[in-house]
Protein 1
Amino acid sequence: MKKTLSIVLCLVLMLGLFAGCASKPADNTTPNTSAPADTKATEPADTKTTEPAATEPAGEPKYINDNASELTGTVRFYTAFAGANGTDALIEEFNKYYPNVKVEYEVYKNNGDGNVAADTSIMAGNVDVILSFGVSNTSDRWTNGMLMDITDRLAEDNLDLVKEWGTDTYKYEDRVYAFPSGGLSIYVAINKDKWDAAGLGEVPSAWTWDEYLDACRKMTEKGADGKTVVYGGSDFNQTDYWTYSIRQSKGMNAFYTADGNADFDNPLFAKILQREIDAENEGIWYSKANYLADSTKSRDMFLNGTNASTVESILTRYIVAGDPQFKITYAPYPVNEKGETNYMGGAIPNSFVCVTANTKNPDASYAFAKFLATYGSKYMYAAGHASTWTGVDTSDIVSVVFGSVDEAKKYIDVDAFGKYVVAAGEPAYSEDNITAFSDIQSLVNQYTKAALNGEVTVEEAMKEIQAGAQEAIDDAKK
């Protein structure tokens, strides 16, 4: 399979070279939280250094180079975010520190075809830094020698992965090829007017799914004909978002057992999906089947007042344009069992800042990547994403998104935003096993839709996913 994909990519590369410069692709800022199809690249020469892994950094972290004003060069940056969604402002601030480094960017689509095109551009030597989405895509790039080993540079700058970004999970053969600095923050957004009207008191700092659904029940409003006119809540509109509740409990490698087999016969999977379907059937949650049928977005249904609350991850960038006629507050993602660690508490690593192995300007490229992973990570919020950097400042982020803290207060509870959306330093789910991930994700989406539409029971769906996932894992290990 890998050989076949390598041949295909080589053909794509040759065609790309003959075609010359292409027009800038369309913007695609919707996060792809599911790992896209595997896009194995032709294996270039081994660029990994052979020195032993660096020891833990000692001393003050160096976020800005000492020679920043003297550094020169051009950095070609591949990102999924258009200029208006934080990229222009990011580069402008970077140039305040590095005035002689020119950053040029291309916007690529974060989907299967877009990632193949990005890999082709990397191999052609046209990319210096890439904002790479998903563990599957990023690990493909480092295992195929497409990314620069930054282990020693991190040590020289006294940058410790755990202290700075909360995890050192994302390594290859104990070396570092990416800053795990981009994330998704998943939380519950609440219409505070509806919350108060239901007499629910203080918004909780921790709660279970039973407690959240009870609050949804109390915020639900029905007309004289008994039909729901305001839904108490909603899941995010993407098919697989119910699986984040599994991630919340397990903390790591949600789809797999400890020994690497499929885990969909774990009763928690069926319990969670059935819980969502039951809430929709009761009329206290807006139907995900409707979201999928007509491409409605959960953020729109929340901002227009149809849903009193919603599980969200990219709401932030849409609030000002949506101009809600109520104040938004936030609560943490609910837990399955009271007292368990909430691995949805912090931003989940979702995107990685990487320097390419064949960059023409390694020093300038690393300086830009380091800036994006630290001081510049606040601009991720302008695109609705989040940062895993522990040094983020809530006031900086709200200023990026809303213009100022005072302006933000017109729309949101800024303190709650800091606690549950920024959520710096909180526990966060991670993955280091992606065996047959794309195949498994496809099965999850297929049978989730079937269960939501009443074509199969939840138990039947889990049985099919378990069988298919295990077969895919076994095939991948051959």
Note: The first strand starts at residue 73 and ends at 79.
Protein 2
Amino acid sequence: MITIREFQDDLKNELEKLFKNFRLTGSDGKPAKFSIYKNDTPMLMANDEDALAPYIVIRLDSGKHREETDRGVQDIKVLILICIFNDDENYVGTDDVLITIQRVIEEFTVNPTFNKYYRIGDVDWTVGDTETFPYFFGGVELTFAVPSYTREDDYC
């Protein structure tokens, strides 16, 4: 049996591996890798907000427990939220967001299983509008089947 929290930890580790060597421009203008957070970004003082980008937030949106014949399964909808800093006035930050989205889609389409989990259903994605310059946002919505509790009585 896997807990929801363990699944989120494992997904974080999977994304850290996927983006290990992926570099973007940080909000300080230097090359930076993604910081990956669960649920939300850390609380920061107002003048520290720039220190976060680029980042990914793994948010568990919702879930549904199903009982199959020999095991329980939870379908967990995950939102992978992306924030990128790019102060190029040609708005190429959107390109960075699209490249990041594509990497996530490819990873979980070509390899829909990792650990004890498998991706099910469609993959949805979105890109935020450009009125947040020099920050650019996007997201990917995935659903994973996660092993769960199984009923243990004589009537299953």
Note: The helical segments are 4-18, 93-110.
